[in-house]
Amino acid sequence: MADDPLSLYRARLARGELSPDPVQELAAKKLSALFHALKEYQPVAEPTGWRARLGLAKRVEAPPPPRGLYLHGPVGRGKSMLMDLFVSTAPVQACRRVHFHEFLRDFHAALHQWRQQKGRDEADPIPPLARKIAEESWLLCLDELEIRDIADAMVVGRIFDELFKAGVVVVTTSNREPDDLYKDGLQRDRFLPFIALIKQKFDLVELASPTDYRLGRVKGAPVYQQPLGAQATAALDDLFRRMTAGAPVGPATVSVMGRALLVPRSSGEVARFTFSDLCERPLAANDYLHIASLYDVVFIDNVPLLGPANRDAARRFVMLIDALYDHRTLVVISAEAAPEVLYPEGDGAFEFQRTVSRLMEMQAESYIGQKHLA
């Protein structure tokens, strides 16, 4: 029989990969209970084909789905790590693990395509689009649920209502408890039914541990390594292992305004790129803002000396650091030189001084300990 999330969690404790945390263990027990409930559950598909169209097909009553889980708490408490344990053991092939913002962006893109093809006067597109999601993945694991704009706030409740009608089970993480979602947002009264739906369909589990594991893993390890070489690479490799805490690591693709952006290595809320990946390709501010909002921790390897000869890449690096700084993203860098001599002279050196200041501030514990702004 496959290991469940609790047994995997305890195995990692025994290997010293995790520190004992009763709050995390309780969440692992809840995830294991869902794991066992899912082995006995299968949503029933709606009848299709000509019999269904003529009303001749019998509709089978679906069993009630298990309640989903809503894991919430401050940054660095292990929410994504626990979700990844669950995903790695899930007894369901039709399982999708995706960042919540990416999930909503994909839905908005599908909504736009529907309206382009069928026109705005056609039937309501949300039910069929939600059914399509349910057919592809009836177990959804959504990381970092957060509502930041009115466009998302106005549709998210209807999307989830249709998903639940189709028998979809959802596990999600969030830095906010349900009552704080979309706080002070425009027309928030229209969003409140979604909060009620969360409370109805999810078990709420608060990870209120006093320990910020993100800060703990980085303590004592400089987040800015220089100069480039084997020692800097080994330091980043070690810190990356600590930040991902043994969770699976692999490439990911995120969607930015309909374009695919490759993340070479990622695990949960941690992503790793090279300078070339981010600054020597035609990326723009929206790409960097998207990365900064998706990931709590971003590694950037092999930042070279900057100057007029690579001015375009340097300009992108400035935009990247601005986006990461504004979102309070923890940044780990290997570079050819210290920030104050990274862009030593020439056109653009004066303007780079603000980035120097930010790079130095981002190494301080006071910055590292701040809450990530999704």
Number of strands: 11
Strand content: 15-25%
Mean pLDDT, all residues: 86
Give me the secondary-structure category: alpha/beta
The SSE string, one letter per element, is: HHHEHEHHEHEHEHEHEEEHHEHEHH
CATH superfamily of the largest domain: P-loop containing nucleotide triphosphate hydrolases
The CATH topology annotation of the largest domain reads as: Rossmann fold
First CA to last CA: what distance?
A: 38 Å
Number of helices: 15
Specify the CATH architecture of the largest domain: 3-Layer(aba) Sandwich
Radius of gyration: 23 Å
Oligomeric state of this protein: single chain
CATH class of the largest domain: Alpha Beta
What does it look like?
It is a single chain. The chain has 374 residues and is of the alpha/beta class. The chain has two domains: 202 residues, Rossmann fold, CATH 3.40.50; 156 residues, Rossmann fold. It is 44% helix and 17% strand. The protein is built from 15 helices and eleven strands. Strands 6-11-10-9-8-7 form a six-stranded mixed beta sheet, with helices on both faces. The chain has a five-stranded parallel beta sheet with strand order 2-3-4-1-5. Strand 7 and strand 8 form a beta hairpin. Helix 1 packs antiparallel against helix 2, helix 2 runs parallel beside helix 4 and helix 6 crosses helix 7. The longest helix is centred in the N-terminal third of the chain and has 19 residues. It is globular, with a radius of gyration of 23 Å. The mean pLDDT is 86.
